[in-house]
Design goal:
Elements lengths: L2 E4 L24 H10 L3 E7 L1 H4 L5 H17 L4 E7 L22 H10 L7 E4 L2 H9 L4 E5 L7 H6 L2 E3 L2 H7 L3
Parallel strand pairs: 1-2, 1-4, 2-3, 4-5, 5-6
Helix pairs in contact: 1-7
The protein binds magnesium ion and zinc ion.
């Protein structure tokens, strides 16, 4: 199958530093129609998110999972099924206890993408990664994802970032609109 790999913060929801409260969760404009369009193009969805806020002790895994269930429920009611949400709770320097780890899952490492590839038999060359940071793009490239697209809907980008990505769009809905989906 071909999938759209989605970073979470700055792609699905508005980037807020170390988001974990439901009341702070806000979809980026147009995300739901954009995902519906991508679904109609035959893509399945996998979310790939660094959540070092867990490792840093800013919120717990339980709080993280509560927020995950919240937005997955909303997407599901819109007919958008996410195959799986992969998250990395680690931090190589600031992690507390078991979370202090130089892991292979934290983007820009491709660990989560490679795990998904095996689990769902994903055709990586037909798949697309959407992210708002260069680390999303580097992880996708390392996992041989066919296209990696940087979005301006999250973290501010610098000129150097723009060259690494295959393309840059304002948001997910900007991408699908311009592709005529
Ligand atoms: Mg992000
Ligand atoms: Zn990790």
């Amino acid at each position: 199958m071909k999938v759209v790999f989605l970073d979470r913060d700055g792609v699905i929801n508005v980037e807020k530093n170390y988001l974990y409260k439901i009341e702070d969760f806000e979809f980026v404009d147009g995300v739901i129609p954009a995902l519906k369009s991508l679904k109609s193009e035959g893509f399945s969805f996998v979310v790939i998110t660094n959540q070092a806020g867990i490792g840093r002790g800013y919120y717990t895994e339980e709080q993280y999972h509560t927020l995950t269930r919240y937005y997955l429920d909303i997407l599901q009611r819109e007919g958008i099924e996410v195959l799986k949400v992969y998250f990395c709770p680690h931090h190589p320097l600031k992690g507390v206890g078991k979370y202090l780890m130089d892991c292979s899952c934290r983007k820009p490492n491709p660990g989560m993408l490679l795990e998904a590839q095996v689990a769902f038999n994903i055709n990586m060359s037909e798949s697309i990664m959407f992210g708002d940071k260069i680390s999303d793009i580097l992880a996708a490239k390392a996992a041989n994802v066919g296209r990696s697209i940087l979005l301006r809907s999250g973290h501010p980008l610098c000129e150097d970032d723009l060259v690494v990505a295959d393309a840059v769009y304002d948001s997910l809905i900007d991408y699908t609109t311009k592709h005529g989906y």
